[in-house]
Amino acid sequence: MTTQPGFQPSILLVDDEEAILDGLRRQLRKRFAVHTATGGAAALELLESQPVSVVVSDMRMPQMDGATFLARVRERHPDVVRILLTGQADTQSAIAAVNDGQVYRFLTKPCSPIVLADEIAGAVEMNRLVTAEKELLAITLRRTVEALTATLSLAQPAAFARAARVTRTVTETAAAMGLAEPWAVEITAMLAHLGAVTLPPELLHKLNSGERLTDADRAMEARVATVSRDLVAAIPRLEEVAASIGLQRVRFDGAGREAGEPRGEDLPLGARMLRAAADLDAETTRRGSVREAVDVMRADPGAYDPEVLDALIRSLDLHAIGAAPRKIDLRDLEPGMVVFDDIETVDGVLLVGRGTVVSEPLIARLENHLDQDRVHAPVIVRA
Fold first, then answer.
1. How much is the pLDDT for 321?
2. Which of 67, 276, 371, 376 is the most exposed place for a label (fewest CB within 10 A)?
3. Adjacent-strand bridge partners of 108
4. On the CB side of 126, how many CA atoms lie within 13 Å of its CA?
5. Where is pLDDT greater, at 115 or 207?
6. CATH number for position 180
7. Per DSSP, what are the bridge partners of residue 81?
8. How confident is residue 280, by pLDDT bands cut at 50, 70 and 90?
9. Which domain holds residue 381?
């Protein structure tokens, strides 16, 4: 197992006999950071606050046996690797634990300290590999989605500027909620507007300027979520993201929902966050004021998850004390800056929508227009 010098992987030992826990702690503390609990309930509570790589549980415990406990660990903390210690008479229970809790190993007692330590070390390595794979998947998916949306933003600047604004709101809301792994909801927001490529330019202009929509306009806009969902559903491992996109317009209280559609906390978190962020952007565009937009949303509380709406409002308060917009020369643009106002050509063609995060391809495109004297040099940005 490859670890940094001095690093001790964190493990949790669970047994109802404190004397056994004390003995195991003494045997293992030189190789691992050892936590202990005298029952399943206490162990589950500890896991909510303490990062742990491996759980080692005795089978026979009162109130909650080892098989039941490890099954609950699997449900709540699937990346934690699970080891079960059993007596010879517990073979059938151990088989149940393998099936229900998907334990990494089950070891019979008495178990040699050397064998136990080596098995825990193998479980720690398994946890490291699983965690590394998830992190790589998250980074790969995010970078792929960013490249896709950045490319599409060059073709549909208004639609994908809106996507960028909504994504930023979702990201800031996730931070205010303290989400440990926000990448899924961020990708949901990034991909939710893919279907906007089907909208005619006239409707995109109306959406970007906050103009009143006709019934036909609203019908076309409503289909964007379905188109986006169907596009994303074809991508492996993004099935939950696709489901969130398809349910983004469902109200939290379930009013007006179609038969079979979830409501309340049964709605995917990504869908709940996406609705709030998208409505904030639409109302701000329509009214020209974030404060008025929030007041409108507060007046219809059944539409939103209260926890999500509260976090969104807190994130806006944090955002308000950020860096003020500033005017710079177009050639001084740098990746990561946020375009504060629309950038148009001298004849009124939209090149970059407000809220777009500056990228290298975007800078190259603007510089080409600048070289042809088709765009004004000063632009307004936010760090």
1. 43
2. 371
3. 86
4. 17
5. 115
6. 1.10.3210.10
7. 54
8. very high
9. 323-383
Q: 186 with 310, same domain?
A: yes
CA distances from 312 to 175, 237, 257, 357 (A): 9, 27, 24, 20
Domain termination residue (choose one: 303, 322, 341) = 322
Q: Which pair of structure tokens corresponds to residue 329?
A: 């020369």
Average pLDDT, the chain: 84
E-only strand ranges, 39-192: 54-58, 81-86, 105-108
pLDDT at residue 96 tops 70 = no
Residue 309 in contact with residue 276, Cβ under 8 Å? yes
For residue range 350-364, what is the model confidence (pLDDT) as tens digits? Answer: 788 777 778 888 888
The residue behind tokens 């809220």 is: 355
CA dihedral sign, ordered 338, 344, 350, 351: negative
Specify whether 31 is located in the same domain as 77. Answer: yes
Helix (H, G, I), strand (E, B) or coil at 375: strand
Helix axes 113-155, 18-28, angle to 10 degrees: 70
Q: Is the confidence at residue 5, as pLDDT, over 70?
A: no
Distance between CA 9 and CA 122 in Å, rounded?
A: 11
**Secondary element (H or E) of residue 307:** helix 306-320
115 and 226 part of one domain: no
Asked whether the whole model's pTM tops 0.85, one would answer no
CATH number at residue 88: 3.40.50.2300
The answer to whether residues 103 and 221 belong to one domain is no
Per the model's pLDDT, the better-predicted residue between 319 and 221 turns out to be: 221
Residues 374 and 338 in one domain: yes
Over residues 362-380, mean pLDDT = 83
Provide the CATH number for the domain around residue 345. Answer: 3.90.105.10
Say how many domains are in the chain. 3
Q: Is the residue at 213 inside a domain? A: yes
Residues 6+ apart with CB under 8 A from 13: 21, 24, 25, 28, 34, 35, 36, 37, 56, 57
In a domain, 70, yes or no: yes
